[in-house]
Structures are given as structure tokens and as C-alpha cells.
Amino acid sequence: MLNKYLSKETMQHAKSVESWEKAIAYAAEPLLEKGVIEESYIKSMIDSVEENGPYIVLKDYFALPHAKAGVGVNEVGMSLLTLDDPVDLKGNPVKLFLVLAAVDSSAHLEALSEISEILMDDESYAIFLSGDLNDITKLITKGDD
Amino acid sequence: MYKFLAVCGFGVGSSMVLKMSIEKAAKERNIDCEVENTDLSSAKGSNADAIFTSQELGDELKGSTKSPVFPIQRYMDKEEVGKALDDFLADKK
């Protein structure tokens, strides 16, 4: 399920980025290219952090940028950016940005709960934090054989 | 059975993850509860037994709900969420 969204096409790795805003835009780029989201969705995700605070940092080093379902979103999508150097997101160092694009309140839930289960597991989380996309791919395709 | 709300700005992403953390922490504590995730505006006027959300959104919610509001900093941190549940139970006694 998860590897339907997180694939070589939608996962990126970088050493560092200038700012959390740039990190969100960069992380979302594959979805923009695929037509999953519109440019406006990237702005909405950034505005949301300004308006609602940094609660998208769901655990240390991990952020889930997202905005309103179906607004600037054409289909369900996820994309991942892993960083070597953490970037500051309003007082929180972040190394993993998982962009979530939802169309309604349900279509993305299975994939979201799947990735949450993985990230709540300390061993798997360490693999995500390492930033190695091959290892991450192995991890998220494991359950689908 | 308790009714809890997990709240974020849009009710589709972070609040869903928070709902999972609450359910896990509640299970460990044998708390019988039903958790619903929702957005900020739907949470206003709710009659849930407790509302879990971020500090910022919690400040906005206070005053528009009678439910006790528990701020959570890390939605995916089962231990932090568990502590909030313990606080909720302590208040109940």
C-alpha cells in the first residue's frame, strides 16, 4: 500500500536545505511534477505552519507537512525528503519531511497509518533517520511480498 | 467509555496520527475509549471527555469548549500522550 505512494519517484535525499519552507517546497516537488498537487498546496502547507504552529513535527526530527484535503490536491499522494543536516522548523530540528496530500478524510488513511506504525517503531525510525533511500524502500516494501 | 478528540488544523493528517497514539497509550493503560480525529472548527462546542491537541490550537479551543484540553507537543510520542492520559485520569478522580 505504502509503496504505491512512496517510490523512487517520490523520495529524495539532500545533504541540507536553507530553511524549513524550502524543505517543504523541495519535498513536495515530485508531487507537483506528477500533477498530484498544485503549486497553491505548497503555499498552504507553509501558511498552515505559520498560522497553526509547528505541530506537524510529530516526533523529534520528523515532520508531516499537509494542508486542507482536496484544496490544491488532485489525488492522494505522499513524498519524502530525507536530510543529512537537520533544518530548524520553529525551534524543532527536522531531518524527515513527509508531504501528505489528501483528497478527503479517508482515502489516505490506510497509507498514513501504515507509515505511522513504521515511524513509531524505534528500529525502523532509525533507518528513516539514516536517510538512505534504498534501505527505506526495503523497509516499506517488506510487508507487501 | 470515554470519548476523546484528537484535533489538528485540518483533521486529516496530524490528528489521525495523534488518534493512533492515544489509542495505543489507552490500550496500554486499559482505558476504554473511543477516539475521533477532527479539525479545529468541528472541535469547538464538542462534548468529548477530553480534547488532545497542540499548545497553539489548544489555546484557540479554550473558551469555546467545556471539555478539558490537553496540549500535546509531539503527536507521535506515545509516552507524552500517555502522560496526558494519566493527567486526565488523575483529574477524574
UniProtKB/TrEMBL annotation, chain A:
It is found in: Cytoplasm. GO terms for cellular component: cytoplasm. InterPro entries: Ascorbate-PTS_EIIA_comp (IPR051351), PTrfase/Anion_transptr (IPR016152), PTS_EIIA_type-2_dom (IPR002178). GO terms for molecular function: kinase activity. It holds the Pfam family PTS_EIIA_2. One of its GO terms (biological process) is phosphoenolpyruvate-dependent sugar phosphotransferase system. Residues 4-143 form the PTS EIIA type-2 domain. Keywords: Cytoplasm, Kinase, Phosphoprotein, Phosphotransferase system, Transferase, Transport. The phosphoenolpyruvate-dependent sugar phosphotransferase system (sugar PTS), a major carbohydrate active transport system, catalyzes the phosphorylation of incoming sugar substrates concomitantly with their translocation across the cell membrane. The enzyme II UlaABC PTS system is involved in ascorbate transport. This is Ascorbate-specific PTS system EIIA component. The lineage of its organism: Bacteria, Bacillati, Bacillota, Bacilli, Lactobacillales.
TrEMBL record, chain B:
Pfam families: PTS_IIB. Residues 2-93 form the PTS EIIB type-2 domain. Gene3D superfamilies: 3.40.50.2300. InterPro entries: PTS_EIIB-like_sf, PTS_EIIB_2, PTS_EIIB_2/3. It comes from the Bacteria. This is PTS system ascorbate-specific IIB component. Keywords: Transferase. GO terms for biological process: phosphoenolpyruvate-dependent sugar phosphotransferase system. One of its GO terms (molecular function) is protein-N(PI)-phosphohistidine-sugar phosphotransferase activity. The keyword Secreted does not apply. The keyword Hydrolase does not apply. PROSITE patterns: PTS_EIIB_TYPE_2. It comes from Alkalibacterium olivapovliticus. Signal peptide: none annotated.
